[in-house]
Each structure stands twice: as structure tokens, then as C-alpha cells.
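User: quick one, sequence for these C-alpha cells?
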């Protein structure tokens, strides 16, 4: 696989990102419209939090969906007492840079020579950005996680 180098490569990456962003239903306003009955049933305090993209312990799954969007992954587990815990995971991504030296051929005074050249590759990496645990349809606890260090 050939790495994306130079301005032309980044143009393709930006174009692909722009196209994907146009397809995704991402805004709180769109999700609020999609789940308008659930949104209108929320207490005023929770509606204000949801409108700001914030969540709190005790919120419903619908409120969290409106505030944060569709989870990347949904897991189910059980406690010793038989209570079912639903975990929503949200993934983030970043481009990890890898640098390495290569040689490229060029000409000096009409003679072919090898020059050292620093190459850079950017590889997409994903990580768990946030986890929310639900019990009986309400937020039990949640946490956000930092982007891993390179």
C-alpha cells in the first residue's frame, strides 16, 4: 500500500472526510427532530443539557442518543444479581505519524547519486473515546478517555 504523501494526497483525505461528514446524521438538531417525542418528554433541565451535548447520570438512552449520537458499539453484560448492564462505546480516531529514512535516486553533475530522505506515513488509529453504562434504561455511569499518546 502506497502512503499518502504531498498536497495531492491530503486533498483526497480531506475530500473523503467531507463526503463522509455530509452523509452522517451528526447534529443534535437532527437527532432531536428524529426523536422529538422522547425529547419533548424530557424534563426541562435534561433538555437543556442535551441541547449542549452533555449527559448526566439518570438520563434515558434516548436522551443520550440525542446528545451524543449513535454509539460505535453496544455491549451487554450481567451482574451477579441478574441485572443487565448495557454499555455504549464511542470510538475516536487520530492519524499516527511514522517517520523513517529512505534513499532516493537523483543526479548531481550528471551522475546518479543516492540521497537520504525522511519519509512520513500517517496511519489511522482508533480508540475508545467514551463509555456509558445503562441499567434499566438509565445512565448508571459514564466516562471519557483520552487519546492515546503516540
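Assistant:
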Amino acid at each position: 500500500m502506497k502512503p499518502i504523501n504531498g498536497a495531492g494526497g491530503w486533498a483526497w483525505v480531506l475530500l473523503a472526510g467531507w463526503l463522509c461528514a455530509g452523509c452522517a446524521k451528526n447534529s443534535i438538531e437532527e437527532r432531536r427532530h428524529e426523536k422529538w417525542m422522547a425529547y419533548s418528554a424530557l424534563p426541562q433541565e435534561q433538555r437543556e443539557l442535551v441541547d449542549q451535548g452533555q449527559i448526566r447520570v439518570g438520563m434515558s438512552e434516548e436522551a443520550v442518543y440525542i446528545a451524543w449520537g449513535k454509539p460505535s458499539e453496544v455491549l451487554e453484560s450481567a451482574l451477579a444479581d441478574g441485572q443487565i448492564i448495557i454499555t455504549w462505546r464511542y470510538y475516536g480516531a487520530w492519524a499516527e505519524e511514522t517517520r523513517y529514512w529512505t534513499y532516493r535516486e537523483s543526479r548531481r553533475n550528471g551522475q546518479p547519486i543516492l540521497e537520504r530522505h525522511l519519509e512520513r506515513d500517517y496511519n489511522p488509529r482508533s480508540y475508545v473515546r467514551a463509555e456509558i453504562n445503562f441499567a434499566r434504561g438509565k445512565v448508571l455511569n459514564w466516562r471519557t478517555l483520552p487519546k492515546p499518546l503516540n
